[in-house]
């Protein structure tokens, strides 16, 4: 009898200790991380927090990212008063409304016909001169009107739906304009054949030239954005929200399909906000995927996270439920992996759907406060 009681007591001790340990590992706060200069929230002014008479510095937040269309003088002034940096997000190649009046800007598929928007993600032909002017004018206006600390390119990739576990990335754009510009700029002569024939050739034996030319077209947009910043607000940062894959993930889709040449863009853009939305992108139980992708990016671009480096990595990490949900127990771990070197800043995706989940907001604040130097 005594032996049995002893055994029960012993197993109770084991159970309690294990439970405490696992609770500790969940609640263990991140240590101070002085290399992290930006602790941001993406998706607008967190008015729900300010209305509770809380200030952003006491919550550990020092930067707000918001859509350039949502900027107002009042909002910028309010955030500056809170001591926060204000960064604008800028839609480059995903203004679908433009096609209503300019159908000739729709991307053309391998069959020579307008390529339907994959899962509703409508892209635009990257060589349409009217569309490019329209975006450059808007970029200039945002920088002129608002005292922002930086502007981040968004959707700067080809017509594709990649923000999901299984991406849908049709090959485009085989419009007459793109085909002509390709021949002119790469000194290639294509036969007089319909686009449905030429696309086979371009994705076959000429694929390397075709892929690099498309990447160069997208990079040239970045060159122009940089020149506008230098002219309008040279102290503002130029960042980009970009696909979190490595150069080999999905058979090299980063360049082959999405036309994102990170090394080439690094000539003009200095802050890389990789988007490792672990839950959304099929890694719901593996927040460490975030730091693995960030680490790859650092090696790829030669960024270590040292003070004084011109290029920086500030990942945007997923706390709100999108596709897959993010449990409250994961918040600390997501921010832990999001703030490991070479990252020197981090921001949370995204306020609009996160703020009603107050438990997660509290966990985010706790993590930000604990890693704040
Ligand atoms: Zn085109």
Automatic annotation (TrEMBL):
It comes from the Bacteria. SUPFAM superfamilies: (Trans)glycosidases (SSF51445). InterPro entries: Divisome_Glycosyl_Hydrolase, GH. PANTHER family: GLYCOSYL HYDROLASE DIGH (PTHR43405:SF1). This is Glycosyl hydrolase-like 10 domain-containing protein. It comes from Gimesia aquarii.
